[in-house]
Every structure is written in C-alpha cells, then in structure tokens.
Write a structure and sequence with these properties.
The longest helix is centred in the middle third of the chain and has 14 residues, at about 65-80. Helices cover about 50% and strands about 20% of the residues. The chain contains 7 helices and 4 strands; from the N terminus they run H-E-H-H-E-E-H-H-E-H-H. It has helices spanning about 5, 20-30, 35-45, 65-80, 80-85, 100-105, 110-120; strands at about 15-20, 50-55, 55-60, 85-95. With about 120 residues, it is α+β, with helices and mostly antiparallel strands. The protein has a single domain (about 5-95), classed as 2-Layer Sandwich (Alpha-Beta Plaits). A hairpin with a 2-residue loop joins strand 2 (about 50-55) and strand 3.
Length: about 120
Amino acid sequence: MSSSKEKGIWTNGVVLSFDFAVDDLKVYYSQTAPQGAYEMIKSYLVKNGFKHLKDSDYKNEKIDDLETVDLLYHFSKKNKWFPFCLKKMDISPNVIKLDIAMDIWAFRDDEWGKEREEQKKK
C-alpha cells in the first residue's frame, strides 16, 4: 500500500469507469449471456470496497490508482476474458463534490416566479 504522502491526488480514492465490447464478450466470456460479465466485475469490485454509482461507474474512497490496478490485475488472472473484452477503462481521482444549488437559487427572479405561478392558476 502506498503511503499517504505518495497518494497525492489519490488521497480521496478513485473513481473507475469502464465499458466492454459486447461482440468480444460473446467470444471470450459467453455467447448466450454476455451481460453477465458486468455483474461479475461488479461483484468483485463491491467485495473489494468499491461502491457502485451507476452503469459501470464505481468509487472507492480508500484506495489509490496503483492499488486499483493491482486489484484489476488479480481479477484478470482469474478471469482471462476480462482484458480481451475491455473497450475502455478510466480511472480518476475521487474529488469532493459540492452541491451549489442554494447558491444558484440566490439568482432567482422572485417577481418572475410569482408571475409564472399566477399564470398557472388561470
């Protein structure tokens, strides 16, 4: 495991996104159930501390890029089809997201809003 000093931009973990080439999944994974590959990698990632966000996007706040590649290496060793079927795989530092909706709400034109509400009542 990398020291926290070495983690730098990876201090808050990683976001991992990927996609498979379905035609390749049919050849190397399963002709009849190629979508099962998504469940297989999901299960592995979740078991190893990743949170499923949506589609093929995952986040782990306690791991860095090198540790992620190491996990994927071990998955590839047991699942020979995996590197043959990847269309893309992106890794990014996990950044802290801030909800700025309240800041944007400050831009509201209250008079315009009241006019719209009145129009809907008619």
